[in-house]
Amino acid sequence: MLHFVPPTCTAPSVRLANLADPQERARLSAWIDSREEATAFHRIVWGEAVARSTGHDFLALVAEDAAGSLTGYLPLHAVHSALFGRAMVSAGFAVDGGILASDGASAQALADAAWQLAERYSAPTLELRGGWLPDDPAWTIKSNAHAGFVADLVADGPDADQKQLEWVPRKQRAEVRKGLANDLVVRTGTGAIDREQHYAVYATSVRNLGTPVFPRALFEAVLDGLGDDADILTVLHDDIPVASVLNLYHRGTVMPFWGGGVWAARGLRANDIMYYALMNHARRRGCTRFDFGRSKVGSGAFAFKKNWGFEPSPLSYAIRNADGQPPRDVNPLSPKYRLQIALWQRLPLPIANRLGPLIANGLG
What sections of the sequence does the record tag as coiled-coil (predicted)? Predict the structure, then answer.
């Protein structure tokens, strides 16, 4: 549900949290845990993992009332890139992580404070991904560019795997059945081999799509930071990894976040097996919902998720730009990047893997 910040005449105090203080850290973590709308991207460990692996400053803004009680939180990353410029984003490398607040006054105060931080960091753009949205003409609300896809998993119990398969629409179910006949092996874990194979598959996948790969350190930091709330599921054929995905777990919901497959995956239906196996794996872990993540409206990924039986829900982001500054464009589907994408797809993989993190690190 979207929340718009109403005008207010009074505002609580806002400051940067001192996360090096164990008491402050525990207090903030408990408050985040108490918020039903909080996501995995609001967790302090997510913010720190991004900062540690990319070098982008992590700034935890908190709002407090006159009695000193927490009333709001906004995790920010100060993203800097020679190619894409500077931006303040909430949260970095995430699809959510915007303002958490118990009231409109706190939300507005956090939005105002975030813009002040953006100016201090010489960042002409501030992006709030989800959460409370400022009701202010200085902000642009985008609600038609991306959609999220979330659905309930079938209840665990006898024949649950079969019931999950039957939940999938007929045409997509037929693709899964073809994959099940291909003698594919599924492995889950977070060990060195899981990480190595996942990055190799993911890097190949995004190179084939024409986009630079994120730094491996980012994946490592997220896995280490989230601990038991993250893992990797890999699909192998003849002991060769052909599809792999890094998953996030939060309050009974699994989100396949960074995943892909090599060219052979399509013919083997390895990606179909990957997501079906993840549904079953997550259910056995106690999850009840499957969050297929966001996709750009009209994209192939958007259509793929609809084919799986997921209904799209619009995602809204708030963006503020400095006067006279154009919005930051990091959308890989943007026409301005068409030539670069075509060239990137032709790069030898070792070169793409060496150059890619240098570029993608600045996307945020």
Answer: none
The residue among 203, 209, 214, 202 whose CA lies nearest residue 341 is 209
Strands 289-296 and 253-261: parallel
- DSSP letters, 192-261, are HHHHHHHHHHHHHHHHHHT-PPPPHHHHHHHHHHHGGGEEEEEEEETTEEEEEEEEEEETTEEEEEEEEE
Record the tokens describing residue 50, joined without a space. 């991004």
Domain co-membership, 141 together with 160: no
For the chain, what is the domain count?
Answer: 2
Show the DSSP H helices in 91-153 as ranges.
104-120
Query: Which is nearest to 150 in space by CA: 296, 260, 253?
Result: 253
| Residue ranges making up the domain that contains 172 | 154-287+348-360
Q: Which of 41, 46, 47, 76 has the alpha carbon at shortest distance from 62? A: 76
pTM, two decimal places: 0.91
Same domain, 111 and 205: no
Q: What is the CATH number of the domain that holds 19?
A: 3.40.630.30
pLDDT in tens, the chain (364 residues): 445 444 444 569 999 999 999 999 999 999 999 999 999 999 999 999 999 999 999 999 999 999 999 999 999 999 998 777 889 999 999 999 999 999 999 999 999 999 999 999 999 999 999 999 998 899 999 988 899 999 999 998 899 999 999 999 999 999 999 999 999 999 999 999 999 999 999 999 998 888 889 999 999 999 999 999 999 999 999 999 999 999 999 999 999 999 999 999 999 999 999 999 999 999 999 999 999 998 989 888 999 999 999 999 999 999 999 987 776 666 655 566 567 767 767 778 888 788 878 888 878 8
Give the pairing type, strands 185-189 and 13-16.
unpaired
